[in-house]
Design brief:
It is a single chain. The protein has an eight-stranded mixed sheet with strand order 3-12-9-8-4-5-7-13, sandwiched between helices. The protein has a three-stranded antiparallel sheet with strand order 6-11-10, with helices on one face. With 285 residues, it is an alpha+beta fold.
Length: 285
């Protein structure tokens, strides 16, 4: 698929994840066999197995360890009493938020990967005609390209050389922004909705991901750091990387009680203060 360089398990997982989120692979559908996937992507079966396990950890696949091909997991609806991985829990919360006439989503995160994929659910419902908000306002805070990130970073510094881990993060950040913005702004033409999508650049690395929905709910998850290896141009690179899709997503709702209401209010004030003060215009170059 990409010349002589073989795809990593993460790249294969990302491709299959996109197929699931786009609806090409629907809940309950069987995936191709490991042998078929290995042939499609031009890799060994072990690489395919790693990708499938990652998708199972995200809650997107079931029966990965069985003899038959895995299935796409059925959609679930998490409760606040039972936190679920961010990749599983965010989409239904967004779908519920998009049922309001005027939708406002604020997010502060390391990349827009989880939000980009989770927004596929409310966008799908809009296309189906199940929900139809009048306006959508999405604001996203992401780290600036100019700062030295706390993570992801190489395990060993590479001197004055260009940091391939930072370049990889920046390429992913920019690609996710473009897809997210395109998918939402397309609703202007297809459904004549009032849609605004704006981004600002943070001068620091956020240790958590925060989602604020319609000013009534705050969802927070911790980035979990892991040491891992990835094949890059020039060889294998060890890095400390963040895995946010598997982190548990905790929900706080304004009408639950004074404790939750205070958390939602303070989280919104924190986000607004950053947006209006020390953040800068976000560039994709």
């Amino acid at each position: 698929m990409n010349g002589s360089r073989k795809l990593s398990s993460q790249e294969i997982a990302d491709t299959l994840r996109d197929r699931i989120r786009s609806g090409d692979l629907r809940p309950g559908a069987r995936l191709p066999t490991q042998a078929e996937l290995a042939e499609e992507f031009g890799v060994e079966r072990g690489t395919v197995r790693q990708a499938l396990r990652a998708l199972q950890d995200d809650g997107l696949l079931s029966n990965v360890s069985k003899g038959s091909p895995p299935r796409v997991a059925e959609a679930t609806h998490p409760t606040r009493d039972e936190p679920q991985p961010t990749m599983v829990g965010l989409a239904p919360r967004l779908a519920e938020a998009f049922s309001a006439p005027h939708v406002r989503v604020d997010a502060a995160c390391l990349t827009a990967e989880t939000l980009m994929m989770a927004l596929g659910e409310p966008v799908r419902l809009i296309h189906e005609g199940t929900i139809r908000p009048e306006s959508i306002d999405v604001r996203i805070l992401l780290p600036s390209r100019k700062i030295n990130l706390a993570f992801p970073v190489p395990v060993e510094a590479r001197g004055d050389e260009e940091d391939p881990v930072h370049k990889r993060w920046l390429d992913q950040r920019n690609a996710q922004i473009r897809v997210l913005r395109h998918n939402l702004l397309a609703l202007r033409t297809s459904h004549q909705l009032d849609v605004r999508v704006t981004f600002r650049a943070l001068p620091f690395t956020p240790p958590v991901k925060l989602y604020l929905l319609n000013g009534t709910e705050a969802l927070i998850a911790y980035y979990m750091l892991m040491r891992r290896e990835e094949e890059m141009e020039g060889g294998t690179l060890e890095m400390y990387d963040a895995f946010g899709t598997q982190s548990l997503l905790f929900s706080f709702e304004r009408n639950t009680g004074p404790r939750d209401a205070a958390f939602v209010e303070q989280s919104q004030q924190w986000f607004d203060a950053l947006w209006e003060t020390i953040t800068t215009d976000l560039t994709l170059s």
